[in-house]
Amino acid sequence: MDIRQHVGVSSTMDVHRARFVPYPTSAISALAFSRSSDSGYTGAFPALRLAVGRANGDIEIWNPLKGQWVQETVCLGDGKSVDGLAWTQDPDEVDSEGTVLPGQQRLFSIASSQAVTEWDLARSEPKRKSTGNFSEVWCFAAQPRWKTSKNAQDEPRSQDMVAGCGDGTLVLLSTADNDLQFKRFLARVAGKRARCMCITYQNRDVVVAGFADSMIRIYDTRNNSQVRQMSLGIGLPGAPKNAFVWTIKVLPNGDIVSGDSNGEVRIWDGRNHSLVQRLTGHDNDCLDLVTSADGHTILSGSIDGRMSIYRQTLGEGGRKSWAKHSHRRAHSGEVKAMAAFDSKNGLSVVVSGGSDAAPMLTPLREHGKENSRSLSSLPQQPKIVSARKARLIASWWEKEISIWRIARQAAIDDVPQPEKPRKLVAKLSLDVKQAIRSVSVSADGKLLAAVTASEIKVFQLRRRTDSDGLAVRKVHAPQEFTSLGARLLSFSADAKWLAVVTPDSEVHIARFAEDPEQPKQLRCLPHTIELDRRHSKRAPSSLSEYDRALVRVAFASDSSVLVAGDVSGYLDSWVLEGHEDLTATAVDITKHDSDKVSSNDGSDAESDSSDDDDDALVIFYGQHWTDNPAGHLLPKLDSAPLALTFRPTILTAQALTNGNPGVHSTRHNPHAHSHALPPGEHRLWIMTARHEMYELDVLAGRLSDWSRRNPTAALPEAFRQIKDRVMDAVWDVAGQHQRLWLHGTSWVFMLDVGGDSMDAESVALTKKRKRKARNGNGEERSAKRHQLGSGAGDRVESERSLGPQSLTRTENGHRANIDLTRSEQNADEDEDVEVDSDLPALQLARLRSNGSKGEVARRDQGTEGQRKWWCTFKYRPILGMVPLEDATIPEEDRMLEVAIVERPI
Amino acid sequence: MAGTKPSRELQSGKTTNMVHDDGAKGSSKKRKAESSEVAESSSKKARHRPASPMVIIRNTHGGTDTEEPTKKRKRQLVETETAGEVQPLPAASSLEPSEVRDDGMAMEEEMVAAEEKDIFQPRSVPEEQDGGGNFAEDVEMARAENAVEDEVVDLGATQPEAVSEAKEAEPAAIMPNGGDSSESSTKPSKLQRRQNRKLELSKLSIGERDVQREKAEVDMNKAKNREARIEKGRIVQERAQELAHEVKMFKREGLAETAIAGLRMKEVRKQKKQPAWSLSNTVAGRFIDHDPIFAKDSATGDAVLITATHREILVLSVETSLPVRTYALRRGISICSYSLDPSDPESLHVVCDNGLSFAWRWSADGSGPQNLEPSDATFSKGSSAIWSSRSLYTAGKRLDEMHVVSGGDYIIAHGPEALVLGMRQDTGKNANDYVWVEIPMSIAVTCVDARIVESNSTSKKDKRLARMSLALGKSDGKILLYDDVTSVFAGHSQASLPTPRTMHWHREAVSAVKFSRDGSYLISGGKETVLVLWQLNTGKKQFLPHLTSEIERIVVSPEGDRYAIQMGDNSIMVLSTSELKPVANFAGLQLACPVSESSLPTPKYEPEMPYSKSVAAVLHPRHANQLLLAVPATRPKTSTNAAEARPFLQTFDVWTSRHVTRQALTRNNVTDLNLGPERTPVAPPDTTHISISDGGQWLATVDEWMPPASDLEFLTTSWEELVEERRKRREVYLKIWRWDEAQGLWTLSSRVDAPHARAGKQMQGAGRVLALVADPVSPGFATMGEDGQVRTWKPKTRVRNGVAMKGEGDVELVEWVCKRTVELPLGSEDGHADSPVDTARDHLPLKACLAYSEDASLLAAALISAGHTTTLVHFLDTSSGDIKATKSGLAGGEHLEHVGFLDRYFIAVVRDAVHIWDLVTDALQQRMVLPSGATLLAINSVDNTFAVAVDSRVNVYKPAETRGVHKDDCHQNITAILAGRGAKGYTLLFDDATVRTLALTGAPARRALPDAPAAPKAPELTIESGPPQSERSADDAEIAEVLALPAADTKASGPIFDETEDDRPVVRPEQLASIFDIGQSFATLPRV
Predict the structure, then answer these.
(1) Which of A552, A761, B30, B667 is most buried (most C-beta within 10 Å)?
(2) How far apart are CA B294 and CA B307, in angstroms?
(3) How many domains does chain A have?
(4) Considering only CB atoms, which chain A residues are within 8 Å of B393?
C-alpha cells in the first residue's frame, strides 16, 4: 500500500503513507525488572531497568524513567526464544576511599537450551554461557539478595541461581566473582513428567519448584533435601490428568502462590505448606503471575489474554482471605510473561507481554484508578533510513535489507503512463553471523553501510541501466575497521564520512572517496580513525558500563561536527578541522601531534587497532577530526537523547578555499594541517527520553539563544500529553520557515522552530518554573508532579471509572465535596501549591489548543497565518518517518516530502 | 367445622371485634368518608331525615360490600356461625330503613366505624379452599350474606338464614335457582310495600344504589314531563349455576321496579325478575417492582411470602403456592413499597404512591382491626420508603430504591445517577444523626445489596468493628463488590473508596443482586434468564439457566434456605437453596402492560402503522374461567417490537386468579442470546390474533414477523422504501392447534404460511391478517386479510388410500384447508379505489371486522382502510360463499370499529355510536351514542346482551331495549372485553393486568369502587425521619384525611359515561350542608 496524501497542514508536507514494509514483530516471552521494589536497599537505589525477552531472541532494555518508559537498547539474539530472564546484583564494594560502589547488575537469560546466558549490557551481546551436564533449562530464578546482617563478619555473598531442567534436574549456579559457574545439582526428580516448569526462591535457602506432574516440591539448598511436596490434584474434567504448575511465586510473608493449567491460582501456607485457598481466576491456563510488594495483591495472566487481579481482604471474622477482584482482557493473544515493580510512592506497575508483542503496563497500586497503557512493539530507533536525494527507503531486519524507490509525485500524477508509486529495487541478504544492528545510507543513495555486532559492511549502490533495480557492489574497507562490528553508524551529509559506534561504544570514522582509478567507484580510504570520548567523572552506578553505551550519533549538516550521546545523557562531540584539499594526500598520518590532548590512557578500549593509532593524527585530504574544544562545556542531559539532530544551516557562500591556505609542510612540521574550525553555528537540537528539549551550540558549548527563549516548557500542552517517546526528527527548512517534524510510534508533531514557539503565558510559566528550580529542587519536583501516578496510564476518566472519583459528604447539614482520586500517599503541601499555581497557565494552554481528538492544531499565529505546531495521531503504528526530496522541483518550491512507514497489525 | 370455614371465622372474628369496639370507635376514631357517598346519601337523607347526617359509606375496595352493621347483626352472626347451616337467603335489605329510624345515631356511628375498617379491609382466603373456587368472590359473597343475615334477623324473620359461606358452597350451590328466586320474589315484595322508596334506596347495594339513585335523582330533578323507568335491584341471593367450575356465582335477583316519577311521586312497583349487573373484584394484577418479603405466619408456622400488586397486598403461602390473605387498597391508590416492622414482624408497613403510609397486621388474625398509623418506624429492613415529617437527607439526584441495614445503622439508596449512603452517628441519643455520602455514578446502578460483616478482631480501637460490604449491580452488566465501604464516611482527608471487585458475567443490566445469608455467595439475575451464584471465595460461578423469563428480583429468605425470584412474566418462584428446585410458584396474568414512560431511548422506527395493538385474548368456550391470551416472554420495558412481541400463550383462570399453563406459540428466544450482531434485540414473532373453536378443541393463532429495520437499512434510501422492504419480508402464519388432553397442551396441527396476500396485488411478502374469528357452530375459522379476502378454514380428515389416518390415541388426523376464499369488492364510491396508483399507501387496510352470526350461516365482513370514507359491510353466506348483501349505511360515514351478531340483530360499533340493525326488518333499530374513545365490543348470546367498552367505561345493552341495561365506570383503561360462550357476563381485562368480570349476579351490585383522584406522581424518594411522638396525633389526622379522598372529585370532574342523558347526580346546596355537617376535619377536601 502506498497512500500518497497531503497532510492537513496544506502545502507543507507531502506524505507517502507506506505500509509495504513487512517488518516482523516478535512475541514477548519473558519479562524481568532489575529489582522488584524499593525496599531492602540502603543508600541509593540501583538502576531500574526492564528487560523484555522476545521469541526471536532479542532482549530489549527499557528504562521506566518514572513512568515515561523508553526503550534504551536492544540486544539482538540468535533467534531462540528467550524463555526466562533474571537480574542479579553483585555485592556492593567499598573502595579505598570508603565510598560504596554499588554492585553491578547483571542480566541472565535462558532460551530453550541447556545454557544459561549472561548478557553484556554495555555491548548488547551475550557475555558468557554456562552449560552443564543437564538437559534444557525450562526455568530459572535468582537467589534473593544478601541482606546485611548484624553479624559484621558475614561476608556479603553473591546471588546464586537455580535452574530447573526438562528432565527434572534442579541445578545451582553461582554468579560469584563476576562469573557464572555450575555449583552443584540440587535435586533430580525422576519420572516421565517430572519436568520443572517454574522455580523460585522462598528465601535464600529454600527453593520452590513446580513440575509438570502437578506437583510443587520444596527443597532446602543447604542440605539438598526435599522439604515437602504438594500436589495440585488431578486436572479439571477434560483436561490432562496432570495439571501443569505454570508459575510459582512467593509472597513477602513466605506464602506460596501457584498458577496452573486449570486456570486456578492457589495459595499455600509458607510454613506448613498447606493449601490456604484456591481461586478460580481463569478459564484457561494461568501462565504467569506477579505479586505486589506488600503481598496483598496478586495478578495473574492466562492463555486467553486475560489478566486477573486478586486482593487479600479481611473476611468473615477478621480472617484474611483472597478473592478475585476483577479481570480484564489485556492482550489480544496470550499473556506469556509478567513482571511487577512496586514501590510505595513512585512506580507501581505490572508489565505483561505475550503474543501481541506489545508490553502492557497495568497499574498495580492504583489498579482500577489508572488506565492501562500499551507500550510500542516497534523499536524505538527507527529501522528505516532513506536516501533522500535518491528517493530510496531502506529497511532491515535479521540479515536482510530491503530497498525501495519511491516514485516522484509528478511521475505518478502527470505522466500518461504512471510509475508504480514504489518499487523494491534491491534486497540484500548479508552473509553475516549475527543480525544486522543498523544500516545507514548516504543522502545521495550511493553508499549503504550495514553493521552487525562483529562486522561492518559497506556497499555502493548504483542504478542499473538495464532495469529499475540497483546494482550493489561491496566497498572494500580495511579489515581492522570492518571487523570492529558496530551498534550504530551514520553517514555524513556529504557522504564522505562514516561514523560507526562499536559495541564497546568507541567511535570510529572512515573516509570515503572516489577511487582515482575507477572514478565511478567509491572506496574507503585505507585508514580509519578512532575518536576518543571524554572521560568525565561519573557517579557510581550499578550499570556503570552500560551507562556509557552510546545510543545516538549525529553529523552536522555540513558534515563537520559529530555528536554522540550515551545512555546516561552525556554527549561527546568532535569537529573536523581544516578544509578539504583534494590535492593533498588522501591519508596523512602524523605522530605526536602537539595539539592533540592525549587523554586516552584511561581508555578501556582493547582495540585491535595498532598502537600508533593511539597517538597518531590522521589527516584526510587536509582535514582531521579532533575533539570539540568546547566539548567539556556541553552539559549532561537529564536522560538519554532520543532525537539528536543538527539544525540545517543555509550554506552561505563559503570562501572558495581550495585547500588550507597558509598551511605548508615544513621540515619540522612535515604534516602541516589546518586547525581551522568549521565556520558558522552548529546548533544541535536534542530531545531526551524525558521529552526535554534543548538546542546546543556545539562549538560554543552552550545553549543556543533559541533554546534559552524556548525551554521545554514552551512546548505546547498537546505535546506534553503525548506519552510515546520521540523516535526521530525531520527538518523542514525550505523557504522561510524552519520546522521540525517529530514522530513517535503513534504521533507526528510539527514544531515551528524558526521563531519563538511560545507566548507570554508560557514564558511566564517557564520563568516561574525556573524560579522554583532556583528555590530548591524544583526541577525534580516538577518532574515528580507529572509522575504522581504509578507509572502506567493516566487517571481513569470519571465516565469510565470503576469506582467513583468524588463524592458529596453531608454531615449535620454541611455539604462538602471530596475527591477520591488523590493517591493514597498524600502529596506534600508544596507540590499541591505548585500544581495550583501552574494550573491556570496550563489550562490556558489547553484552551488554546482548539483541536479535535485526532488532530490538534494551534490557532493561527498573528498575521503570518502559520501554525506554530500541529499534531496528528492518525498514523499508527509508525515504524519510521524518513524524508525524501524531489530534485526536479526547484528548491524554493520544494516542500517537505516524507514517507511514513506504518506497520499495520 | 372450624376447619371448613376459616373465612367465616375470620369474618366473624372481625365483626365481633367491631362489636366490642363499637361505642368507642364511633365517636373517637378518625373517620373517613367518600365524598361522593356523602353526597349521594345525604341527598337522600335530605329528603327523609334532614336532621340526621346519615352517611352511607361504601366500601372502597377489597371485595367486601358495605352493609350497615347493627348490633343485632353481630349477635346473630355468632349464631350463624355456630349453626353453620345452609339457610335460605332472604332479600331483606328493604327492611332496614326501619332500623335506621330506630337508632339512627348509633347506626351512623357504627357505619362510620365500619367504614373506617372497610377502606382497608383484608380479605381472608382460606387455604383449604378448593383450587377452582374464586376466593375473591367467595369472600365477597360471604360478607354480603353476613350482612343480609343480620338484616334478616333484625326483622325477626323466621326463615333460615342463607349462609353465604363460600366454604359451605356445596349445599349452597346445590340450592336450586328456582327456590331462591321464589323466595326472593315473595318475601321482598311484601316487605317492600311497607317501604318508602327513597329509604330503600339507601339500603340498596352500592352498585345498584348508585345507578339507580342517580337516575332517581335525575328523575326528581327534572322529571316533570318525562317518565323514567327505574330498575331497582333487590338483594336476593342466588347461587350461581356454575357448579362445574367450582365457583359459586351469586346471582342477585333484583326486583325491577318501575317507578313513574313525576310530581306526584307515585310509585308503581312492578316485580320482575331481572338480574343485576355487577362488576366483580379485581383479580390478577401485576406484582409491583419490589422485593417480596419472606415471613413466617405465626399462627400456622408456615412460611409465607408477602408481596403486592398495585392494589393489593398478598400473603402467599410457600407451602401451597396459594394466597393466604390479601388486603386491598381503595382504587386509585397504588402500593409503592412495603416492609415488615423490625420490632414486630407481624406488622407490615405499607407506603402508597400518594405518600400515605400505614401498618397492617398481616399475620393470622389479619382480620383484626387495621391500625392506620403513620409509619414512624423509621428503620425497617428491606427496602422501604420512610415517611415522616422531617427530611433526613435530600439527594441531588433521583433515587429509586432504599435499603436500611443493620437496624438503621446504615441507609443505602440508589437511583440511576447516584448512590447515597448514610451512616448513623454514634453521637448522642438522637438516632437520626446521619452522615450522608452521595456518590455520583456514571453507569447507572440498577440494584444494590449490603451486608454487615462483624469482625471479631478486638485489637482495633475503632468502635465500629462492623464492615459493610456493598454489592452494586450496574446497567452495563457488571457487579461491583465493595468489601468495605465504611471508609467513605471518614472525614475529608481520609475518605477513600477502595477499588471494587468486578464480576462481569451478565450481558445486560443486572436486575437483582443479593448476598447469600452467610455472605459467601452473591446471587444475581438479569435479562439472561439465568440465576448466577457467585462463589465469592473461589471465584467460581454456578448457574441456574433457562428460567422462563428474565429475573427482576431476588430475595433470600431469612433462614437462607429459600430464594424468591420475581420474574418478568409476572411470576414469583421460590427455590430451595440447596437443590435449586422450585418450591412454590406464584404466577400472575402476564398481560403486557403498557410501557411506562422510561428513560430508555425510543426505537428509531415507529411501528409500521400507527394502530394500537389489540390484546389477543379469548375465553375458553367450555371453561369460561379460562382466559387464553398471547403474552410477551417478559414484561416489556421498552416499546420496541422485540420487547412487545407476544410469542407465548398463557392460560389463566380468571376466577381463581391462577396461572394454568403457558406455552410457546411461535419461535422465541427467551433463554437464548437474544441480541443480534449489532446488539439489536432479536424480535420474535408477535401473535396478533387468537381464536378458539366452539368446542374448545381447536385454537387458531396468527403471528407475524418482520425483520428489524436496522437489518434492511442498507438496502434503502428512504423511510418509505424501508417500510416496503420490511413488508416484503414479512412472515405471517396462521397456526391451528389441537388441544392435547393427555399432555394438557395445544399441539400444532396445521400451519398456513402467508394465509393472505398483501394488499394491492403486491407479490412479495405475506399480507397481514386483520381478523380471525371462529365458527360458532362447527370447527372452523374465518380470516380476513389486508388483501380484502375472506377465507374460511375447515378441517379435513387426512385420508390415505381412502382410509382416514389415525394419529396417536386413535385421533383422526386432520389437516386444515382453506375451504373458501371470497374476495370482497372494494367500495367504489370513492372513485379512486380502483386506481392502482393510490392503492399503495392510502388504501392499505387498517382494520377489518369479521363476525359470524350465531348459527354460522352468515359472515359479516368489512374492511376499513384509510382511503375510504364509507365502509361497506358485506354479508356472506357461509355455505355458498356468496355475498348476500352489502350495506354501506350501517356505518354511514363513520368509522366502523366492530361488528357482531346477536340474535337477529347486527351490531356495528362505529366511532361514537352503536348501531343495532335488525336483520329481519333490515332496518336500523337503534343508534346509541357513545362517548368518544377506543371502543371494544363483546357479545354474549347467553345473556342476549352485548357490551361496549370505551376507555374505562363499559356499557351493557340489550338490542331490544333502547337504553343500556347497565353501565359502569371501572376507572381503569379496559384493554379487552371478552364474552365466554355459554357463560353469562363479560370478562374485562385492564391495562394494569387485572381482570374483572361483569356479570349478572345475585350479590349486591357493586359499582366501581370509588376512585381516588388520579394519584399524584410518586414522590421522589426522600429519606425522612420519624416524627417526634408529640406530633403523632396530628399526623394521624392528616393521614386520615388523605385516606378519605372523596370520590366526589372523580364524580364531578370525570366524564360521565352516557353523556347524552344528563343524569349526573346533582348536589344541591342543601345537600352540601349535610356533607359538611359531618363535622370532622377529615371530611374536607384533602390537602393533596
Answers:
(1) A552
(2) 9
(3) 1
(4) 810
Residues of chain B with pLDDT under 70: 1-275, 331-332, 355, 364-391, 426-432, 455-465, 492-493, 593-613, 638-642, 761-762, 809, 826-844, 866-870, 889-894, 1001-1088
Across the interface, whether the CB atoms of B455 and A317 are under 8 A apart is answered yes
Contacts of A553 (CB under 8 A, 6+ apart): A488, A489, A490, A499, A501, A507, A562, A563, A564, A565, A644
Q: What is the pLDDT of residues B483-512, one digit of tens each?
A: 888 888 877 667 777 788 888 889 888 999
Three cell numbers written together for A40? 531492602
* B502 chain-A contacts, CB cut-off 8 A: 325-327, 802
Q: Is B498 touching A (CB cutoff 8 A)?
A: yes
Give the gyration radius of chain B's Cα atoms: 31
Peptide bond connecting A679 to the previous residue in cis, omega within 30 degrees of 0 = no
CA distances from residue A473 to A397, A424, A460, A469, B658 in whole angstroms, order as listed = 20, 17, 5, 13, 95
Task: Give the model confidence (pLDDT) of A499-512 as tens digits.
Answer: 999 998 899 999 99
Element housing B214 (H / E): helix B206-222
pLDDT at A839: 40
Among B465, B499, B517, B520, which would you mutate to test the A interface (most chain A Cβ atoms within 10 Å of its Cβ)?
A: B499
Length of chain A: 905
Q: What is the pLDDT of residue B164?
A: 38
Question: How is residue B706 written as a grid cell?
Answer: 418482520
**Chain A residues whose C-beta sits inside 8 Å of any chain B C-beta:** 277-281, 311, 313-318, 321, 323-327, 367-369, 798-804, 806-812, 816, 818, 820, 824, 826
Mean pLDDT of chain B: 66
Q: Which of A313, A319, A825 to mutate: most B Cβ within 10 Å?
A: A313
Q: Would A495 be classed as within a structural domain?
A: no
Give a yes or no: residue A554 inside a domain.
Answer: no
State the Cα torsion A438-A442-A443-A446 to the nearest 10°: -130
The residues, any chain, with a CB within 8 Å of residue B827's CB and separated by 6 or more, are B833, B868, B870, B871, B872, B888
pLDDT given for residue A243 in this prediction: 85
pLDDT tens by residue, A235-251: 667 767 788 899 999 99
Tell me, yes or no, if B467 comes closer than 8 A to chain A by beta carbon: yes
What does the DSSP 8-state code read for residue A144? Answer: P
pLDDT of residue B195: 42
CB–CB contact B499 A368 (8 Å): yes
- Rounded to the nearest angstrom, the minimum Cα separation between B70 and chain A is 55
pLDDT at A751: 86
Q: Residues 6 or more apart from A829 whose CB is under 8 A from it?
A: none
Does the pLDDT value for residue A869 go beyond 80?
Answer: yes
Structural domain contains residue A43? yes
Q: Of how many residues is chain B composed?
A: 1088
Residue A826 to residue B493, Cβ atoms within 8 A: yes
- Among B1066, B1064, B1000, B1009, smallest CA distance to B256 is for B1000
Q: Does residue A53 lie in a domain region?
A: yes
Nearest chain B Cα distance for residue A282, angstroms? 9
Q: pLDDT digits over A512-544, tens only? A: 988 888 888 888 888 888 888 887 777 788 888
pLDDT at A209: 94
User: Which residues, including other chains, have CB under 8 Å from residue A771's CB and lie 6 or more apart?
Assistant: A778
B636 vs B646: CA distance, rounded Å: 10
Residue of B438, B500, B518 with shortest CB distance to A808: B438
The residues with which A702 forms a beta bridge, in sequence order, are A697
Q: Which pLDDT belongs to residue A86?
A: 94
Provide mean pLDDT across the span A795-823.
69
Residues B829, B888: contact at Cβ < 8 Å?
Answer: yes
CA distances from A704 to A642, A678, A729 (A): 19, 17, 18
